[in-house]
């Protein structure tokens, strides 16, 4: 059987490496820094498949350097680094990995909320510094029970976060572009963004990064939030205007922020966010569990092999070009 030629721009997990190598000649960028653009374009000259990471901009220029490309996949649910219209114009299906990362990302997102609400990280800092002899000095957090959680972007992960919050006795508000039909199931109340900002004790962002959501959280939005509010972001960093967030945290416009994503990413060591006492940051690890990352990688490979074999991708962003050469 002929082997396909593919480019992988991130270090492959052992769980997919053998499966891919069995069917493909793989050119793998296995370093932690992003693949240099020039090298990637060179590698793509004869590539039939691309397994790309979030740091690769898939645009017209890249596609025009890859005349044999038949499928692009990403092991993630967000695909804002890929120009989907340009791929669709060329008939290239783009595979992604929705669903399989929902519970892990919801755990991390709710974990961020719980960490800052109860100031777990500050407690750990004190323990490490040997400062736990005086019980009145420990950082007091706030109760979750009875508090309002506003979810901006009530999709699959949003709904899974809502469930966790409700188990802790929180009241859940949400906003989307469209009101969900299954509100009874998710037990959450739809409100407009402004009302959500004004009423919520915790605001969690879980929208995709689109033209509409880029910079959606700026000075105006933070000024509408309660001064006691906690802001939690697990969605792409560029949804938040970072300078405005820094200012809001400095001015006490909001109480605290917990972020799994930032703009830029990674944050340079001298970034102002890292100097603030009321912020807690994790390095984009929402889906980073052993089981979930393996499921994502395997689904990405299934998408890749399906595209290379001229079959329908199991999970495709641009369905209009997702067809099987055998039956469609
Ligand atoms: N931190 C991490 O490691 C991870 C982060 N994520 C991020 O989580 C996010 C959500 O993923 P997932 O739940 O699977 O995606 P879904 O597509 O299921 O949910 C996204 C939700 O956002 C809503 N939405 C879209 N545009 C807007 C808008 N302009 N205003 C308000 N709501 C909007 C959608 O509803 P409607 O269309 O009705 O507006 C939808 O309900 C993604 O951005 C993804 O990148 C995912 C995995 C890991
Ligand atoms: O940010 C992660 C993703 O899957 O999207």
From TrEMBL:
<dbReference type="GO" id="GO:0005829">
    <property type="term" value="C:cytosol"/>
</dbReference>
<dbReference type="GO" id="GO:0016618">
    <property type="term" value="F:hydroxypyruvate reductase [NAD(P)H] activity"/>
</dbReference>
<keyword id="KW-0560">Oxidoreductase</keyword>
<dbReference type="GO" id="GO:0030267">
    <property type="term" value="F:glyoxylate reductase (NADPH) activity"/>
</dbReference>
<dbReference type="InterPro" id="IPR050223">
    <property type="entry name" value="D-isomer_2-hydroxyacid_DH"/>
</dbReference>
<comment type="similarity">
    <text>Belongs to the D-isomer specific 2-hydroxyacid dehydrogenase family. GhrB subfamily.</text>
</comment>
<feature type="domain" description="D-isomer specific 2-hydroxyacid dehydrogenase catalytic">
    <location>
        <begin position="6"/>
        <end position="318"/>
    </location>
</feature>
<feature type="domain" description="D-isomer specific 2-hydroxyacid dehydrogenase NAD-binding">
    <location>
        <begin position="110"/>
        <end position="286"/>
    </location>
</feature>
<protein>
    <recommendedName>
        <fullName>Glyoxylate/hydroxypyruvate reductase B</fullName>
        <ecNumber>1.1.1.79</ecNumber>
        <ecNumber>1.1.1.81</ecNumber>
    </recommendedName>
</protein>
<dbReference type="InterPro" id="IPR029752">
    <property type="entry name" value="D-isomer_DH_CS1"/>
</dbReference>
<dbReference type="InterPro" id="IPR036291">
    <property type="entry name" value="NAD(P)-bd_dom_sf"/>
</dbReference>
<dbReference type="InterPro" id="IPR006139">
    <property type="entry name" value="D-isomer_2_OHA_DH_cat_dom"/>
</dbReference>
<dbReference type="Pfam" id="PF02826">
    <property type="entry name" value="2-Hacid_dh_C"/>
</dbReference>
<dbReference type="InterPro" id="IPR006140">
    <property type="entry name" value="D-isomer_DH_NAD-bd"/>
</dbReference>
<dbReference type="Pfam" id="PF00389">
    <property type="entry name" value="2-Hacid_dh"/>
</dbReference>
<dbReference type="GO" id="GO:0051287">
    <property type="term" value="F:NAD binding"/>
</dbReference>
